Amino acid sequence: MLTTFRITAILEGISYLALFAITMPLKYWAEMPQPNKWVGYAHGFLFISYVILAIVFWMEKKWSIKRLFVLIVASLLPFATFYVDKKYLHPLR
């Protein structure tokens, strides 16, 4: 479970950054909307997967509600899933 959650967190963070740094400029500056569409679909799937896995992992580890809040908020901020991986998930290995 830990490995799956860590991989999902990293991929969600990468897809979020790719959406903002690569595909949005392509959409608006180069008038190429297709990459934004596909990366957006992938990010949406990874976002939902991350949130579901965060809740399941939180319940499995019996962590505090504050830690669940940190996990969920991390999915909304750029680079935050990398922080969660480093601070909360990596030490559990």
TrEMBL record:
Keyword Cell membrane among UniProt keywords: yes
Ranges for domain DUF3817: 2-88
Highest taxon in the source lineage: Bacteria
Membrane-traversing stretches: 7-26, 38-59, 68-84
InterPro entries: DUF3817_TM (IPR023845)
A cellular-component GO term for this protein: plasma membrane
Membrane topology qualifier: Multi-pass membrane protein
Compartment(s) of residence: Cell membrane
Primary residence: membrane
The entry's keywords: Cell membrane, Membrane, Transmembrane, Transmembrane helix
Keyword Transmembrane among UniProt keywords: yes
NCBIfam families, A to Z: integ_memb_HG
Protein's UniProt name: Integral membrane protein
Taxonomic source organism: Kriegella aquimaris
